[in-house]
């Protein structure tokens, strides 16, 4: 009787699945460490598994693997495809340096070549252990469990996204575990290990896994029962940013001396605000750019103390006498006071003082001369508005007449590459006003191939400038990249500018007494720009793609603002009731032969082979349709919603369907991004205003409670245009 271990077809399938599982270990390691040469490492793994599969003796496999490792080092580190005297000398030199470092216990002095050899040694050991588990123990559960834990930990604590990897691991691991269980069962019961019999048992397992995976994609997913504990723990570490350019968890941090690196999202709530409309919440500014990040100038702090309820003075005075109010409810301890633009005063039940540092533009609260972290406070403000006429009269020649106090907002490091200044001149070449130049710089990022992302973000090398790297090499980053680059470009044009930190508006979660309740999380930690306009004052600018925190502009020009008359929509005729089909006679055919169930069972038993083939074909067809769904799904959605009644409920469902379709198309909504800012980003991508129109109607209907204002027949055309654009 043939042993299951001698069946080459079955064991070959097991080794292929083992190779796929091992590749899930390699992919995140190489991606996170920027090691490169992924295929060459996979080739080593495949070589080791093939030799283990054919039971090649160790005195052959050992030298072959050592030869491959030596060739890898020569090829990767010297660029030579073949061994030369120079490459052999390089290997011997690297070995000598690393051995000396090991004997002297100077671990950091070991070379990259030595670390590469250690990595290959680990792969070698992993291949041997897996070969032992599969060929001798017929069990892979421990390795499968470690793989799931490994990817889950990386997905949680690093920028590596394990969403797709987990699905692949579950399918591969379950199939592998099922086949090994089958092998153990057959050995235990002495069953013959014939290939056709193994396939008969294996096909149902494969079909079950494929069907369950497909169902898992389509079935609705429940929200987590418990909140993610990791952001809660890290929120108390005081390190919301990136330390030393590594990977950090997004949030507000005070150390900005080393920018760069990726972020992991964190949806822990920082505060909630009841406010009439969304606001940017300012915390502080920084003014010294160091080629790697931001620091605060060493000027003496210019502090002012205000009593509870006093009128405060900032660089953004409130507009007019009428005041709006916002009630801020802090959910996490926060050492500074968040405030919107145009803040007039603060009010809190406790007796305290507000300390304002005009250098940092930051408010702290004091109670009996000690720092105090407020839980709930009310802020009164009036958002400043700027005259477009005055902005268009801002003369660049006035910049040279600014007093010395603005010099620190023009600081640039001596090491700044010249091409940054040349780019600034090129961007501003078509503008003859200060405001026009600032606008040109702000818009530059949205039209020149820049990409917003929080993952795979480069860290500048020791001799590299942070802004220069972003502008000319990566063009990929998040708010710190965009805002810092705009400040440096403006300063290169002699326009005073400073870097601002705080939070964007967050998401509307409720409405209370006419006020929207915004929830602001660590994901909403943000940075932007303030620039000085001669004769006008300081203004905020938002260069980050996908965010719309622009200043309020008073369009006081002599322009025609009349709107064209809208045609009245004709009354929709009432649909006629459909005729009800006649019900069949329950007694008809009662004695007409075999029942439907009996006929079905007979058909299945006769056509079993064809049904299995048809099922496999259907699953393949479903899989192909699923892969190309972004092309055909719009053709189904448009006629479906075109037949629906013109109600607010129909519009809301159609809008949510559009959001899913845009994400499927590749225009993903960033973590913490509001619907309004996401709509602006979609419109900038397609060059339309249709998404903004639909989003305004959706927010008015859902969050404003005004469902009757929705005119679905009028909005349908914009919705269909956007749906059609996603089919490309």
UniProtKB/TrEMBL annotation:
Gene3D superfamilies: 3.10.620.30. The lineage of its organism: Bacteria, Bacillati, Bacillota, Bacilli, Bacillales. Pfam families: DUF4129, TgpA_N, Transglut_core. Keywords: Membrane, Transmembrane, Transmembrane helix. This is Transglutaminase. The chain crosses the membrane at residues 9-28, 40-60, 67-92, 112-134, 141-160, 166-186, 198-219, 608-626. Residues 562-591 are annotated as: Disordered. The keyword RNA-binding does not apply.
